[in-house]
Amino acid sequence: MDLNKICTSLRAASQKLALQNACDKNAALEAVAVALDKNRTSIIAANKEDIDAARAGGMSESLIDRLLLDDKRITGIIESLRLVIGQTDPVGEETGGWKTPNGLNIRQVRVPLGVVAIIYENRPNVTVDAFSLAYKSGNAILLRGSSSSYKSNLEIVRVIREALKGVKGGVPEAIELVEVKEHDHSDVDQILNAVGLIDVCLPRGGKKLIANVVQNARVPVIETGSGVCHLYIDDSADLEMACRIAENAKIQRPSVCNAIECIVVHSAIAEKFLPLLEKTFAGRVKLHADERSFDILKKVISTGSTTKADSKTLDSQNQILFPATEEDFGNEYLDYECCIKTVDSINEAIEYINSHNTKHSESIISQSRENTRLFQAMIDASCVYVNASTRFTDGGEFGFGAELGISTQKLHARGPMGIKVLTTTKYLIDGDGQIR
After folding, report:
1. Contact 104, 430 (CB under 8 A)
2. Which three-class secondary structure state does DSSP give residue 361?
3. Inter-axis angle of helices 150-165 and 22-38, to 10 degrees?
4. What is the DSSP letter of 303?
5. pLDDT cut 90: percent of the chain above it
């Protein structure tokens, strides 16, 4: 990969975009939306090749779900793209301004970052999301997807570039896709060390990918996080509500980063709640329970003709209850698995969550205003919910349309990252001959 040549082209493209107005960029993005709609068949066909290869390679079905594109998901991608089109162009927005005593007029305005790189795994929808946010905010983007989604990404980028070529003022060179070779990550190292060529890099994927980028990058990084999300069931919780939310947050799409990986239960309601939870999950989720919750659950779980839920006696293929180990607490399963932790107070719950989470999304189910406000004040995470599923941590659900990922850091951006994250500011100063 000739990264210098690629980034030189991207830099020139970003300079063209910086001069375009919102109407120009919106017209280009609308052409992309139309092209994606017209090319559904070729995109789905390319995606099928990726899916078939992933299954042949033994990828789990929950991760294949991340990789999948079908008509419904392409429709969702197009809808997200049109939401971005409908958003106010952040470039040129005046965020502050004043006049100094000597007569200088100072304005602080939003400007594009320039050349953005995103390194991501599976999910080909990210290709369109990242492109649309970058283009609308006047940035050129370098995409480095995974080998498992390469054919899908390649076809999507082809469609995008062809659409941009057909629009007056379109900038097709504003998007580049890195050619990915299986088991070869040398290109990632080049991107992470491209000082002066790339203005910012965003990792979006699993814990290993994010750690590699954060630890080894010499270019600026906006850190996203893996999703070890918790659901805390307080002693005043509406237990039926808690079960509905637990089902949604764990089962709807277990492979995504805003799905819960641990349910924390107040001991005062554990005897009532856990049997209801087991009935709601109905054997669809493997439960890794601490000692107290295991003792409660083993009384209500039966597998086949076995009435005991002792992990040593159950058929391993049907087993749904396991004694939790230390490795389970803080683990991101990304599958139909969840750990259960019992606590004796909300303060213990907060302490446990803060020491095991990834600063992504946490939720409390409670009817106590005092406890919910304490939870929101003390939990260290980008999104903290009360009586709602963590599955809402998403750019689309927050009204951003597309998103770049969920930032778990505390600088510049935190939570779902929309269009303004790809801008910075500069000061514009007008004078009439002042000297110092």
Report:
1. yes
2. strand
3. 130
4. B
5. 77
Q: What's the mean pLDDT in 423-430?
A: 94
- Between CA 214 and CA 355 the distance in angstroms is 20
CA–CA distances in Å: residue 111 to residues 15, 89, 172, 275: 11, 11, 20, 54
β-strand pairing of 200-204 with 115-120: parallel
Q: What single-letter amino acid sits at 379?
A: I
Instruction: Write out pLDDT tens, residues 296-332.
Output: 999 888 644 333 344 433 334 568 999 999 999 999 9
Contact 323, 294 (CB under 8 A): yes
Measure the CA–CA gap between 43 and 83, rounded to whole angstroms: 21
Across the chain, how many H-helices and E-strands are there? 14, 16
Quote the tokens at residue 7.
């980034």
* Alpha carbon distances (Å) from 364 to 39, 146, 169, 319, 332: 43, 35, 49, 29, 19
pLDDT digits (tens, 9 = 90+) for 124-153: 999 999 999 999 999 999 999 999 999 999
- Is residue 9's pLDDT more than 50? yes
Are the CB atoms for 78 and 36 separated by under 8 Å?
yes
β-pairing, 361-365 vs 229-233, is: parallel
